[in-house]
Amino acid sequence: MDGIFGWLGDHGAHQDLIRHMGDAARLSQESTPHTHSTPQLGMAAASRFGKAAIHVENGLAVALNGRPRFLDEDLSALAQQQNPAAAAAQGWLRHGEKLPARMHGTFALVVLEPQKKAAFLALDRVGAERLCFARHGGHLAFGSSAQSVASHPAVGHVIDPQAIYDYLYFHTIPAPRSLYQGVKKLLPGQYAVLRNGRLDTGFYWQADYSPVDASFARHRADFRDTLTQAVRDADAPATAAFLSGGTDSSTVVGALTAARGAPVDTFSIGFDAAGFDEMEYARCAVERYGCNSHEYYLKPADIVTAIPLIAREYDEPFGNASAVPTYFCAKTAREAGFENMFAGDGGDEIFGGNVRYAKQGLFEMYGRLPAPLRRGLIEPIANMPGLSDRFPLSKLKSYVAQARVGLPLRLESYNFLHRTPLDQIFSADFIGAVEPATTDAALTEVYQRTASDHYINRMMHLDLKFTLADNDLRKVGTMTEAAGIEVHYPLLDDRMVAFANRLPVDYKVRGQKLRWFFKEALTDLLPEKIINKSKHGFGLPFGVWSNEYAPLGDLVGDSLSDVKKRGWIQPAYLDHMLAMQRGPHASYYGVMIWVMVMLEQWMAANEH
Asked: What is the pLDDT of residue 65?
């Protein structure tokens, strides 16, 4: 459901815009969902959690979604006394376009000055909120979903084929692209300004990776203080926590327990499938912190229930299968009477916890070898005729081939769209309508835009955008809202992100040890079993269960049959994937099968 939605037009009805926004603001303060529009102008304020606020004052209109914190003390007080939008209006008069830099927390901010035909849009630093916009003629349409912007009659729901390609490549549609032609999404820390008929974008904030020279003890003390402050500031009545048993969720639960001095209600998801269930680790954390534990074991029938809900709730196709356990975990919490939940997302991406960070170090070493050694000895051996495809030379050949691909593109070596020639995946008409190289360009732009030349920091910066803002935060935020829960991310508190970014690189990844500092700094808080556990994730045994549970298998088969009719994908490729998924590679091929199924389910549920 949109928190903000409107458009600035050029037909001279600026006073109508202010009046409509004033009506919406009053109704928003009464917590009444509202939509008021004319053919040119409109503004709606609606939020399940009352996070949306609109303020109109002296020809200035401000719409604000999220949970911002203002660094100016008087603005912070005004936000408490009235609402955050009123504080943002005063902040705009004081700071102008520098206002977002004076705001922390989660927010999507829109400032309209209709008499000047000017508008300013900004998104929070981690991209927890969403803000979309489109420029069409004399209109600037904006909203917190791509659907709302495309609904403007001057924009329209015209699907961009490149967005479909991006979805199949990334399993989501990364910003700034959206599903619809002409509709863009702001990136984390980005703003857009319309002035004198010109629309420009830029960044009001970028991650600072300059290392702070301090002792381990000083860093540890600062980290623990920041962690405590983050959970205290985000705590609210009727708040529980996700608990997967991983490092991040366990840290959040442990810190919240310590801050409260009382047990925390935790919610965990289990899977009755070999290799997927991690409930033993969640129970380890429960025992350590004395939590009030709630467990839900996901069943194949739950996936059948969740698929149409996911298709309905997301404003674009979304292919992360972990949305299913996220939804049922949040749903269980809501049924137990909770309205807020803490999630542990972000720890891997700011403290160096993803396996690829260490793995890529092994490939980076190759590039530092003397060129004569690489070209004159290693590569000829790796490509010896008749032997290079046999073990162990096959391993060396694979290593050399990957090492010669620079970062960040090397990270996509195993992408489905790189493993098979595109003309065997897509129809000729579809290939002719897209530019596959744009995915590489998008990755490279973010990787190179990092304010650091170290590959570890650059990969983490890449993950802040593609893994978190475009994927995991969309997954958690949308599914918790669908369940009636408001989610908070203590590890993505702006103070925590700033602290982690400025740690020395070897505090993040030390050799092959991930999250070195994080784990060393929490030895007294985290159970040793959780500190030493291997990385797993919040997976879903979709591929296995769709073979074992007939209703799910039927849904998959029907969905893929409908995908064939759209003319995008080669039918033979879909048949091949389904055959492999029904054979010995259920989990591996199940990933792309899920992505295809959710594309078709979304299209069927949202066609206009």
From this structure: 93
